[in-house]
Specification:
This protein is an alpha/beta fold. Helix content is 38%, strand content 28%. The protein has one domain: FAD/NAD(P)-binding domain. The chain is built from 13 helices and 18 strands. The strands form 3 sheets. Strands 1, 2, 8, 9, 10, 11, 17 and 18 form an 8-stranded mixed beta sheet that branches. It has a 7-stranded mixed beta sheet with strand order 6-5-13-14-15-12-16, with helices on both faces. Helix 1 packs parallel to helix 5 (106-116), helix 10 packs antiparallel against helix 11 and helix 11 (318-346) packs antiparallel against helix 13. It is globular and about 65 Å long. It starts with a strand and ends in a 5-residue tail after the last helix. Bound molecules: flavin-adenine dinucleotide. Flavin-adenine dinucleotide binds at residues 10-16, 33-36, 43, 46-47, 126-128, 156-158, 162, 179, 181, 263, 283-284, 291, 294-298, 300.
């Protein structure tokens, strides 16, 4: 039997769940189809900046999510001896933009978003295998034999999106570096709660921040050739970072090997076409970006809100999706480009360029970086009202 809905969302990551909340609140008949038999948050911790918190506020889920998070007050870029290259106080930014920057476990973010989604909206174990945009409807076929007809469908199915592939969108490309990540118990005295640090060495970085009272989220990046593997992750990290400032060695050594994740950092070279006909893309499916500005999920939440408003105002129609695409294109291109540049800056190999980079952090680069963060967030907040 074929199910009929106004809006079918493919993928229940943060983007898909947020879009479902926005649409349901607007009275739209929406379902989210997720291939996993349960919701699983890949990755360890996540930072959400003021732009994302404004979306969570509008969706009515800011309070429970903030309650599970740790607010960050200061960011530091450090040298390997712990001296500070540049410090950034987040409080003035949080005041100006009316929302803080927080860190939390990914599982908590997904769990709270899913809890807010009304019963019956989220369909688990539903893997999209084919779709057709024909005859005034989108027809979606799932691996379990389920068939759905929707007035419009949204691909929020992540970096390897099947919906994007259907639209002829590009494949992700390798950035030149890998990211290691882990969550581990750690005393407040080693990583204080309001602080996020990122330490820069030759073509590698290590960072850490608390996600709650018990746990710290740490991450590291290394330039390595494409498709390389590593079955001794802690040993690799100890060799690269073990001589850096405290508590880096301790964090690496205290974390069990099986908790250390390692992924190639990949991205879409160009954001995909955000809408065509009755299909739209949002979040990583549309514009998977490098994680250097901590904005991928934040911008996906912005997409979700604007898409929700477009459909609420103009109906589940191709015209609404086109308005969404027009409102978002420039924004997502800019953040993806800035994030890529920030990554190149962080992963510099040449000793001379590194010296220039580190020297300029104390002078010219620091205010430029602070301005980049501020404008990224402020534009994000402003973009939420693009269709009002
Ligand atoms: C190392 C690293 C650190 C990061 N740190 C941050 C950060 O601090 N802050 C931040 O904002 N962003 C960060 N990001 C980016 C962030 O993780 C992503 O942008 C975000 O998770 C994307 O969410 P999404 O919902 O669009 O996609 P996803 O989270 O990928 O969700 C897609 C969902 O679709 C489902 N799916 C896929 N295919 C199908 C199918 N065929 N049928 C049905 N379901 C399907 C998947 O199972 C999944 O549940 C980071 C990324 C990396 C790699």
């Amino acid at each position: 039997m074929t199910e009929r809905v106004a809006v079918a969302i493919v993928g229940a990551g943060s983007t898909g769940l947020a879009a479902a909340l926005a649409l349901h609140a607007a009275g739209v008949d929406v379902r989210v189809y997720e291939r996993g038999a349960k919701l699983e948050a890949l990755g360890a911790g996540i930072t959400l900046w003021s732009n994302a918190l404004h979306v969570l506020r509008r969706l009515g889920v800011e309070e429970p999510i903030v309650a599970r998070s740790n607010e960050l007050h200061r960011g530091e870029t450090r040298r390997v001896d712990a001296s500070v290259l540049a410090g950034f106080d987040f409080a003035p930014l949080a005041r100006e933009l009316g929302a803080p920057c927080i860190a939390l476990q990914r599982a908590d973010l997904l769990g709270e978003l899913a809890r807010a989604v009304p019963a019956g909206v989220l369909k688990l174990g539903a893997e999209l295998v084919a779709l057709k945009d024909e005859g005034g409807d989108v027809e979606l076929a799932f691996a379990d034999g389920r068939r759905v007809r929707a007035a419009v469908a949204i691909g929020a199915d992540g970096i390897r999106s099947r919906v994007r592939a259907h639209l002829g969108g590009g494949e992700p490309v390798y950035s030149g570096y890998v990211a290691y990540r882990a969550l581990h118990d750690c005393a407040e005295s080693l990583v204080p709660s309001g602080l996020a640090f990122e330490t820069w060495g030759p073509s590698k970085r290590f960072g850490a921040l608390r996600v709650d009272r018990e746990r710290v989220y740490w991450f590291a990046t290394l330039n390595v050739p494409r498709d390389s593997t590593d079955d001794r992750r802690r040993a690799t990290l100890s060799a690269h970072f073990g001589s850096w400032h405290a508590p880096i060695r301790r964090l690496i050594e205290a974390t069990p090997e099986e908790r250390v994740l390692r992924h190639d950092v990949i991205e879409l070279a160009r954001p995909a076409e955000l809408a065509r006909g009755r299909l739209a893309l949002a979040g990583d499916a549309a514009h998977a970006m490098t994680p250097n500005l901590g904005q991928g999920a934040c911008v996906g939440l912005e997409d979700a809100w604007v898409l929700g408003r477009a459909i609420a105002r103009f109906g589940a129609t191709p015209g609404a999706l086109r308005r969404y695409a027009d409102a978002r294109r420039e924004r997502v291109e800019r953040v993806a480009r800035d994030s890529r540049r920030a990554g190149r800056w962080g992963q510099i190999e040449s000793p001379l360029l590194r010296w220039l980079r580190d020297t300029s952090m104390g002078t010219l680069a620091r205010p430029l970086l602070a301005r980049l963060v501020r404008t990224t967030l402020a534009r994000g907040v402003a973009s939420l009202d693009a269709l009002e």
